[in-house]
């Protein structure tokens, strides 16, 4: 993404804790910049990074958070920045590593229309399609809901594969039929053939990040007073898999967790003996 910005003529300075950036600190990277772009693991880290950079930003600069962050936290950060004459848009992305490289990501942007118009040339270097989905925080809300749908679809696709395999079906033949039918999704079209059947488990998106995004969606629903049982169950399964699988596991490795699950056997030892009641005497 940074390479695409530089290729289009933008002067890019970068900072990363791993030392891969061109600057030694975030303040050095942000000094005098027209825009500060963040792509970090969660909203709390974004807030810390942006507030650390804030003294170096010039008045009128725009913070573009392209992370997957919590919408309410984004709005709170935006208010803090506005008090310092710095604007903010949330512009999370969807798409695999290949789309990041060729600048064709989908971008879901939230913020004031005038601010978004200012940064659209920047976003166009990284995204093939840009959607203005509402005020600040709306982009992060849409991103969380999108990833919830993706996470639920992944579970459904992987469970379907497990049932098909147990029944003796040829997975490739099943996928041919499903991908020409209404049940198809990104899991049946790409994840299963490219990651599961090949044994690669290397989509480039970590399981922990998927669990985090589903958690954001669940928190959003809970805060709005909505009862979303399927969302809760989806979150429960992703968090359970996160506990069982190694740190850094790819999100497609939830298949390994699912294939180990079995219906609990109901043996005689687990049955509770029925109590024998003495017959009542009639008088």
Number of domains: 2
Task: List the total number of helices.
Answer: 12
* Main CATH class of the largest domain: Alpha Beta
Instruction: Please outline the major beta sheet.
Output: 3 strands, parallel
Low-confidence stretches: 268-273
The global form is elongated
Whole-number mean pLDDT: 94
Terminal Cα separation, in Å?
Answer: 89 Å
Count of strand segments? 6
Derived structural class: mainly alpha
H and E order: HHEHEHEEHEHEHHHHHH
- Using the CA coordinates, give the radius of gyration: 24 Å
Oligomer: single chain
The CATH architecture designation of the largest domain is 3-Layer(aba) Sandwich
Tell me the CATH superfamily of the largest domain: NAD(P)-binding Rossmann-like Domain
Helix content: 40-55%
Range of strand content: 5-15%
CATH topology of the largest domain: Rossmann fold
Describe this structure in words.
By secondary structure, this protein is mainly alpha-helical. The protein is 49% helix and 10% strand. It contains twelve helices and six strands. The strands form two sheets. The protein has a three-stranded parallel β-sheet with strand order 1-2-3, sandwiched between helices. Strands 4-5-6 form a three-stranded mixed β-sheet. The relative contact order is 0.09. The protein folds into two domains: 134 residues, Rossmann fold (3-Layer(aba) Sandwich); 119 residues, N-(1-d-carboxylethyl)-l-norvaline Dehydrogenase, domain 2 (Orthogonal Bundle). It is elongated, with a radius of gyration of 24 Å. α3 links the parallel β1 and β2. α10 packs antiparallel against α11.
